[in-house]
Prior knowledge:
Layout: H1 14-28, E1 36-40, H2 44-51, E2 63-67, H3 71-84, E3 88-91, E4 102-105, E5 111-115, E6 124-128
Parallel strand pairs: 1-2, 2-4, 3-4
Antiparallel strand pairs: 5-6
Amino acid sequence: MLIKPRSTVPDMPRCAADDIMRRMQALQNQGPIEIVAIGVSTGGPQALTEVIPYLPANLVVPVVIVQHMPPTFTGALAASLNDKSAVTVIEGQHGQILEAGIVYIAPGGKQMKIVQQSQRQTPHLLMTDDPPENY
């Protein structure tokens, strides 16, 4: 996988940055964060455009996103977010090993699960045709 270097992250309004930092610190005080999971639907692409570009290039956990979209649109969404972000954003693939600092968007029309069968095994993606949960 080709991971391209990025130079800058857009400036964030001070109040939003303070709120995010406060929330992240509260989560970190509860124990180590191993993964960030985001589920979005209507309005999701716009919301992701307002969040993902602010993730730092040195993010130490993977991010997984499920966005309810038709199959042909999620690849374009990943490419668009990738162009605007310091992190690498891709459409996830079946069997792909999760890496820190990479954002994986579930392919449209698929369910995406994270599988780790033992403590020693690296978590990886499993794409299924299972029916949607919670619509």
